[in-house]
């Protein structure tokens, strides 16, 4: 969920508050993508890295603005243009364990990030 995970968390927090169930929601987001970056690929290595952040979302009075709204267009149709494929050896390891993944995995589960930048940023 890399980039979108924090945004979805923020939207979820505001929905919890607007629903009246919570007054305060702490949203924490962290991405560790550097382990999936091919450092020789300038098309991806300058875009993906490690980061973390947190925000406390609090209820506000009716006359304050708060989060005005959101419009999240997420359909997955372009997934072939930005991905990190599961490694073959990891797939074999899962198959040898009656289809259940081993946690924590002994090694990184995905290949390097692959991106068709012209399609992603179109």
Write a structural description.
This is Putative beta-ketoacyl ACP synthase III. Keywords: Fatty acid biosynthesis, Fatty acid metabolism, Lipid biosynthesis, Lipid metabolism. InterPro entries: ACP_syn_III_N (IPR013751), Thiolase-like (IPR016039). Residues 1-76 form the Beta-ketoacyl-[acyl-carrier-protein] synthase III N-terminal domain. Belongs to the thiolase-like superfamily. FabH family. The protein is α+β, with helices and mostly antiparallel strands. It has two domains: 1-62, no CATH class; 80-122, no CATH class. 27% of the residues lie in helices and 18% in strands. It contains four helices and four strands; from the N terminus they run αβαββαβα. It has helices at 2-18, 42-45, 88-95, 117-120; strands at 24-32, 50-58, 82-83, 114-115. The chain has a two-stranded antiparallel ribbon. Strands 3-4 form a two-stranded antiparallel ribbon. The longest helix has 17 residues, at 2-18. The chain is elongated. The two termini are 20 Å apart. The mean pLDDT is 81.
Beta-strand residue fraction? 15-25%
Question: Which overall shape is indicated by the principal axes computed on the Cα atoms?
Answer: elongated
Strand order of the largest sheet: 1-2
DSSP helical segment count: 4
The averaged pLDDT comes out at 81
Alpha-beta content class: alpha+beta
Radius of gyration: 19 Å
Q: Care to count the β-strands?
A: 4
What is the oligomeric state here?
Answer: single chain
Q: What summary fits the major beta sheet?
A: 2 strands, antiparallel
Uncertain runs are: none
For the record, the count of structural domains works out to 2
Could you give the order of the helices and strands? HEHEEHEH
Ends apart, CA distance between termini = 20 Å
DSSP helix fraction: 25-40%
């Amino acid at each position: 969920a890399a980039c979108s995970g924090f945004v979805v968390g923020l939207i979820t927090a505001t929905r919890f508050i607007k629903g009246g169930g919570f007054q305060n929601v702490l949203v924490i987001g962290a991405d560790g993508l550097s382990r999936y970056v091919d450092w020789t690929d300038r098309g991806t290595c300058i875009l993906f890295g490690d980061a973390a952040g947190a925000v406390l979302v609090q209820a506000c009075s009716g006359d304050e603005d708060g989060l005005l709204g959101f419009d999240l267009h997420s359909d997955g149709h372009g997934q072939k243009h930005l991905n990190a494929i599961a490694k073959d050896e990891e797939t074999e390891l899962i198959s040898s364990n009656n289809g259940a993944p081993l946690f924590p995995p002994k090694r990184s589960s995905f290949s390097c990030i692959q991106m068709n930048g012209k399609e992603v940023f179109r």
